[in-house]
Amino acid sequence: MKFNTWNGRISGSLGYYKSEQTNSSSSRQDIGTAINNIRTFMGLQTGNTFSIFNDTQDATATGYELDVTANLTPGWSVSANYSLPDSVLSNSLPRFRAYLAQAANRPAWEAYAANATNSAATQVRQNLSDIDLILSRNADGLPRVNQSDYIANLFTRYRITSGGFKGFAFGGGMNMLGRRLMALRTGFAPDYSGSYRTFSALLSYDRKWKKLSGNFQLNVTNLFNDENFRYTSLLATGTPQLFRISDPRTLTFTATLKL
């Protein structure tokens, strides 16, 4: 839905979307390791011979997006956008689930673990429990890991249209990313990374010399050189595993001349 008001000085759109993603790759070495452990404990193999560590999952994404542009005065403009994404899992890890359901696999392992006289019954029960925890964190209907609560951007620019500083313009903006779901662990509250903000700025100058016109502009990204240190994944135990930081403050100067 698009809108336009105040004699065209404010315009924008509000949208709703729904999309589906199928057969997205999902690396699950943790399940593969547990299966290898069980088969080794039960004497079904020697070493890590089970090699299926990748599976797939589907996801349905819905969300709302708002975009607004406002020309508040002849020289002052503001633009903003805001989105609320929501993505849930479906058909999660079908290959692993089908493999485990086979009579020679999960049912046989459970029977082995239930017999206290078996030497490795305790170890097999523990690995079966580990598999259940992993599958429960990837169950259909759960929110998708790495999804942010919201995404928002704001930018404003002011151009001086008269006086001794005519031709100069300056502006600034802010990019915001809400907290991001990193892991769902059974028995624990969801694990989130923190939200963060990054600021930018610009300074430009337009000038004409008879038939020649020029534009000179300085852009600064990550204005305050904020590292925005944030974890991107966790181990099954909840221990942080991988992280990333924002690019450092970057200054870019451009000069454009037109005849």
Radius of gyration: 28 Å
Written as H for each helix and E for each strand, in order along the chain, the element string is EEHEEHHHEEEEEEEEE
Mean pLDDT: 91
Shape call: elongated
Task: Provide the low-confidence segments as ranges.
Answer: none
Strand order in the largest sheet? 1-2-3-4-5-6-9-10-13
Class derived from helix and strand content: alpha+beta
Q: Estimate percent helicity.
A: 10-25%
Give a count of the beta strands, DSSP E runs of length 2 or more: 13
The total of helices stands at 4
The fraction of residues in strands falls at over 45%
Q: How would you sum up the major sheet?
A: 9 strands, antiparallel
Distance between the termini: 41 Å
Describe this structure in words.
By secondary structure, the chain is of the alpha+beta class. The chain has a domain at 145-259. The protein contains 4 helices and 13 strands. The protein has a 9-stranded antiparallel β-sheet, with helices on one face. β9 and β10 (212-221) form a beta hairpin. α1 packs antiparallel against α4. The longest helix is centred in the middle third of the chain and has 16 residues, at 121-136. The chain is elongated.
Tell me the layout of helices and strands:
Blueprint: E1 2-5, E2 10-27, H1 29-41, E3 54-73, E4 76-90, H2 94-101, H3 106-114, H4 121-136, E5 151-159, E6 168-177, E7 180-183, E8 191-193, E9 196-209, E10 212-221, E11 230-234, E12 240-244, E13 250-258
Antiparallel strand pairs: 1-2, 2-3, 3-4, 4-5, 5-6, 6-9, 7-8, 9-10, 10-13, 11-12
Helix pairs in contact: 1-4, 3-4
